[in-house]
């Protein structure tokens, strides 16, 4: 579905506002087709149910029910529209996909049964893979460092994870909160010794197999009170519209 000119103007105006008034697409702030990625939506369509994204009617139900939309730079409705339009860079650099709590409320109320939460997961994976996530934003940094530690060592060493998170997001806070780490180490609740498992190679083969296995189908419900809500299948100030 191709966004109408009015909607394109809305997206462009929102991007300018988020960037402090700068106009990234042209001298007049008009969205240039040369900056769009026509294959972006096609990539999202490869996830289970992702092809339904083209059926989005932009009703805003997902934004209305989202408990965190007020803290997003783009509401779920707008983010889905931007994905369809091919605004790859703006979508993957958005903080919205990292603010998402994965509560599946949007998926439950969508009248077109679009797996919006799974789309958010797919966008997170793409952002981490391409390195386009918001820099110094704690959530994507924490996710990447945690998964990387488990991938390499089979375990997560909390002290090293915390130190890496501080250094890559807010280094100054490392000195400010250092006293807390010292108290935890004195009480034996935290150690600088790296934790690891014995059969790391076997774990690595299991993780690679999980990555290449076909994704599980997503079960969607038209009612938020339904008992068949889907579960999470991956780790890794405006109105409702």
Description:
The chain folds into two domains: 5-130, Fumarate Reductase Iron-sulfur Protein, Chain B, domain 2 (Orthogonal Bundle), CATH 1.10.1060; 138-212, no CATH class. Helices cover 49% and strands 0% of the residues. It has helices at residues 5-18, 40-44, 61-65, 76-85, 88-92, 96-99, 105-109, 116-130, 138-153, 158-169, 171-176, 178-186, 200-212. The chain is globular, with a radius of gyration of 20 Å. The protein starts with a helix and ends in a 29-residue tail after the last helix. The relative contact order is 0.13. Mean pLDDT is 76; it is low at 1-28 and 218-241.
Rg from alpha-carbon coordinates: 20 Å
Terminal-residue CA separation: 18 Å
Percent of residues in helical segments? 40-55%
Overall geometric form? globular
Based on DSSP secondary structure assignment, what is the total number of beta strands?
A: 0
**Sheet bearing the most strands, described?**
none
Architecture per CATH nomenclature, i.e. the level-2 architecture of the largest domain: Orthogonal Bundle
- Class of secondary structure makeup: mainly alpha
State the name of the first-level CATH class of the largest domain.
Mainly Alpha
The whole-number mean of residue pLDDT values reads 76
CATH-defined fold name of the largest domain:
Fumarate Reductase Iron-sulfur Protein, Chain B, domain 2
What is the string of helix and strand elements? HHHHHHHHHHHHH
Hey, roughly how much beta strand do the residues contain?
A: under 5%
């Amino acid at each position: 579905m191709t966004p109408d000119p009015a909607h394109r103007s809305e997206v462009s105006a929102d991007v300018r506002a988020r960037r402090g008034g700068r106009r990234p697409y042209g001298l007049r702030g008009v969205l240039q087709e040369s900056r769009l990625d026509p294959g972006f939506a096609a990539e999202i369509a490869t996830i289970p149910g992702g092809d339904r994204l083209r059926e989005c009617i932009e009703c805003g139900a997902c934004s209305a029910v989202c408990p965190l939309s007020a803290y997003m730079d783009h509401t779920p409705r707008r983010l889905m529209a931007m994905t369809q339009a091919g605004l790859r860079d703006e979508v993957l650099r958005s903080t919205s996909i990292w603010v998402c709590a994965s509560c599946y409320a949007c998926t439950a109320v969508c009248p077109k049964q679009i797996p919006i939460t799974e789309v958010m997961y797919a966008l997170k994976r793409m952002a981490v893979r391409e390195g386009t996530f918001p820099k110094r934003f704690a959530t994507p940094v924490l996710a990447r460092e945690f998964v990387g530690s488990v991938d390499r060592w089979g375990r997560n060493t909390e002290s090293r994870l915390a130190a890496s998170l501080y250094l890559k997001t807010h280094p100054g806070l490392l000195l400010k909160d250092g006293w807390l780490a010292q108290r935890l180490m004195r009480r034996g609740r935290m150690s600088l010794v790296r934790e690891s498992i014995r059969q790391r190679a076997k774990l690595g083969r299991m993780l690679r197999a999980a990555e290449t296995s076909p994704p599980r189908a997503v079960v969607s419900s038209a009612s938020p009170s339904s008992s068949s809500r889907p579960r999470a299948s991956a780790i890794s100030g405006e109105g409702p519209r």
